[in-house]
Amino acid sequence: MPDKNFPPRRVLVIAYYFPPMGLSGVQRTLKFVKYLPQYGWKPTVLTVEPGGYIARDESLLDDLAGKDVRIVRTGAAGPTRLFGGKDVVAMPSEWSRKLLSRMSDTIFIPDNKIGWKKRAVQKAVELHQAEPFDLIFATAPPFTDFLVGAEVKRVLNKPLVFDYRDPWADYPFKFYPTPFHYWRNVTLERRALRASSHVITTNRTVKESLLKRYRFLTYGDVDILPQGFDPEDFPAAGELEQDAARKPRRRQMRVTYAGVFWEDRVPDHFLRALQRLFEEKPKLRGRIEAVFVGTFREENRKIVSRLGLQDSVTVHEYLPHKECVRLLCDSDLLWMIVGEGFSSPGKVYEYIGARKPILGCAPQGFIRSLILEAGGTVVAPDDVEGIKNALESHLEKFERHELTGPPDEVVDRFNRIFLTRSLVKVFESLLAV
Asked: Nearest Cα to 273, choosing from 224, 236, 313, 237?
């Protein structure tokens, strides 16, 4: 807890992505900012004006009501600026999204937010002159945030902490049209890391990748602070029990997925597994409900229709975060998919926070290990037969009232309040040098 005899220390948080933008990419930063004041730190968030979001969630900013937090916004950059007149824009088809992403990677280095760098640095220096910061915290992607942080550190000479929510040069979906593009990204990442005082990653895979490529980093220069869940987003246990008592027990097992589908994260194999199960055992039709929360594109709906699953699939468009969490808690099984080993999907940790059993489709790597540690089941992302068998096995447990969630000791490790305390320890270690 903060020492009341001393004023709070001030941290500049550089975060292009921030609420009211929705989706999981803003959760980690928002929750750090929410809980930093309770440990004696006053955050100033430097971000952009709202607009042009795939999803907008004003309710997220309620987290900061009454907190000692300041949000400073500048004009946006890149495609966001083009859609500035619109609060929310339609999610393009996956084919269009991939094309636009590759065009962007060809034209902009490191990303299409690079136009924000100059105005962000100017604003950061202006804010520091009015009320000095003790430390700079930059979170990415977009990796323009790291370039802003490095330049602000050069001007202000304050400790700089980088937070890798995803890898930079090694990001599996980063498109490098020429060797120059790859070289330039690696060069920028190396320069930024040399300017940093400390680095945080969400998982060991990214940490090891950084240490292998950038030999000037030592093991102690990089800490792992995983993604997590905010206990205040979840209904109290008593409230859930009251809800359950008011409702008749479902005859259908509800299997829920929260998030968007893109790149190698697609619902196709899961839906085929569900269709195959119903085809092989027609009596099971009507006993499993698949629920999808978030942007469900037209191509996804066509697969549902083609497989004849309309009566077994329920789709909710983007829901305010706490409504989504409540739906997770009201489900019987939570499904997720990840096709590569670098990313840390935030939904996995909220699934753990919901204390529900997890069916994961994941390759070998830390996400597979995490789901297994949480008592879940894991099959390969494209293993239709394996998914089918797992659904049938979970249905049998559901009907015997034997479905169980992760153990308390696993859940507690990912509480965002405790994770923020670990972040504060990093901050304070840098000021003590």
From this structure: 313
